[in-house]
């Protein structure tokens, strides 16, 4: 078995800065889309065992909705926007200008609202990451989003599928987790970016370049 490389603490710090850059651009885009004050903040960039990673969305028996988008280009992997039913359905109410609680089940309109939100968020997040990772590089780090797909299932089951490739290549999985605020209040949404095993080796090389910014992003 070819094991995926583990990143050093310095590389993880630089990768976290890249995630911050993506979150900053994602915040601007989602704020414009929702027409409301919104903030995306990086909660953590972790390398941990699979059983810990699959617990990031709560209890294994919790049902969640997920929009999953493939990341293609220089680096490949998956992005996940996850939410419980109440939080996910409230997004549709907000976009349609309906009172909170109007949407009570997942229909075409509600799923479309979630997927378009993921499309806007994922695209802008990758743009911010690409700019950061391209600093000092003779070649641009290209990060291209694919159209999102909607799923609704048990949290642990969905995440096991998402992390499967990384888990098969090593004992730990790497991912970034971001959280959301709307009107200054936390939302029960979670955004995950999960590189695939082949990208971890490329990330290790990119994050080791001396030309990459080393400044700490608050």
Q: How would you explain this protein's 3D organization?
A:
- With 218 residues, the protein is of the alpha+beta class.
- It has one domain: Chemotaxis protein chec, CATH 3.40.1550.
- It is 43% helix and 28% strand.
- The chain contains seven helices and seven strands.
- Strands 1, 2, 3, 4, 5, 6 and 7 form a seven-stranded antiparallel beta sheet that branches.
- A hairpin with a 2-residue loop joins strand 6 and strand 7.
- Helix 1 crosses helix 4 and helix 3 crosses helix 4.
- The longest helix is centred in the middle third of the chain and has 27 residues.
- The chain is globular, with a radius of gyration of 17 Å.
- It starts with 8 loop residues before the first helix and ends in an 11-residue tail after the last helix.
- The mean pLDDT is 83.
List keywords for this structure.
single chain; about 220 residues; alpha+beta; Chemotaxis protein chec; 7 helices; about 45% helix; about 30% strand; globular
């Amino acid at each position: 078995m070819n094991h995926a490389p583990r990143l050093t603490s310095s590389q993880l710090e630089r990768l976290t800065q890249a995630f911050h850059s993506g979150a900053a651009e994602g915040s601007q885009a989602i704020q414009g889309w929702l027409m409301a004050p919104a903030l995306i903040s990086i909660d953590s960039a972790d390398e941990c065992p699979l059983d810990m990673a699959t617990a990031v969305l709560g209890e294994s028996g919790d049902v969640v909705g997920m929009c999953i988008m493939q990341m293609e280009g220089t680096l490949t992997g998956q992005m996940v926007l996850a939410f419980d039913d109440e939080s996910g359905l409230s997004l549709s109410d907000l976009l349609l200008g309906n009172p909170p609680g109007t949407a009570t089940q997942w229909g075409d309109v509600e799923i479309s609202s979630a997927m378009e939100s993921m499309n806007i968020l994922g695209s802008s997040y990758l743009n911010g990451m690409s700019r950061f990772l391209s600093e000092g590089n003779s070649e641009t780090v290209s990060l291209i989003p694919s159209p999102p797909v909607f799923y609704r299932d048990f949290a642990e089951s969905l995440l096991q599928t998402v992390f499967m490739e990384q888990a098969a290549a090593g004992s730990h999985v790497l991912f970034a987790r971001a959280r959301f605020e709307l009107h200054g209040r936390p939302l029960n949404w979670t955004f995950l970016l999960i590189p695939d095993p082949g990208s971890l080796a490329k990330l290790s090389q990119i994050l080791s370049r001396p030309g990459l910014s080393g400044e700490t992003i608050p």
